[in-house]
Amino acid sequence: MKKKILILSGGISKERLISLDTGxxxxxxxxxxxxxxxxxxxxxxxKKNIKNFKPNVIFNALHGQFGEDGYIQTILEQFNxxxxxxxxxxxxxxxxxxxxxxxxxxxxxxTPKFFTFSYDMKVQNLIKKIEKKLSFPVVVKPLNEGSSVxxxxxxxxxxxxxxxxxxxxxxxxxxxxxxxxxxxVAIMGNTKxxxxxxxPKRKFYDYKAKYNSGAKTEHIIPVDLPKKKLSQILNMALxxxxxxxxxxxxxxxxxxxxxxxxxxxxxxxxxxTKLSLVPEIAEHKGINFLKLIEWILKDASTKR
Length: 304
Ligand SMILES: Nc1ncnc2c1ncn2[C@@H]1O[C@H](COP(=O)(O)OP(=O)(O)O)[C@@H](O)[C@H]1O
Ligand SMILES: [Mg+2]
Hints:
Blueprint: E1 4-8, H1 16-32, E2 36-40, H2 46-53, E3 57-60, H3 71-77, H4 88-95, H5 97-106, E4 114-118, H6 123-133, E5 138-142, E6 152-154, H7 159-165, E7 171-176, E8 181-188, E9 191-199, H8 207-211, E10 218-220, H9 227-244, E11 249-257, E12 260-267, H10 277-284, H11 289-299
Parallel strand pairs: 1-2, 1-3
Antiparallel strand pairs: 4-7, 5-6, 5-7, 8-9, 8-11, 9-10, 11-12
């Protein structure tokens, strides 16, 4: 008999809508193939829903805060039901761009230079620090968001305005701006699934470039790279996946500039709509959407 799958989607992060989309599409594919599926929010009814539905596996389709950062994983660990993607600690490390970048550096995985800023520093001093340690433009981003939410390419004249808009975050990352190409790599367990290049028509790969089909970001697969370079970026992504301790599927986001790859971040809950990048990379490797989902379900476990 086909298994019962509980899909967790929605949540209260800024990526709620993307998560609902991921949840719907995974559910549709599974239902079409005979699975019993229930979609649920990670709210106060979760325990009751699990008790009533008695799923064989919980598919975590959440993105962003509380769904990708170890919170929900901590809750899922108590139910003794296999759940998908990374566990508590790797999720929380990967979601924190400062901590994960420090781990990348320790493991010789190149990442853009950066420092963090909290609001006890005067803006004038911040500008001085940027000019001393990095140079304008810099990239300003929250430590723990996704989908390019509140990521800005920042010139000197915009520092004040951008920081004002980010007042709700305790700490902000200020990162060296890396020009060049945008390449992302999918890892599936211990397997290097492949890479895809994104050519946004917009200034950078921002929220609209990611999700508005009208923004017309071009997806290029296979990526045009010399064999040696391709193998280098795939190895960097696998290494990042391993040193953080990730499970299941991850997607690592890189910039490629003048022969050097820079790892921006690793995503433990990559988008899983039919148009998302990991399914596209998998498809190119001959793993269709259903097979990819079934692999993720099979890989699920109670202690991640
Ligand atoms: N240091 C950087 N240099 C150039 N572009 C960057 C840099 N950091 C981020 N970006 C752009 O912003 C996008 C989102 O940044 P990322 O660090 O991946 O955060 P998110 O978690 O929101 O996806 C990247 O895909 C890239 O287009
Ligand atoms: Mg990213």
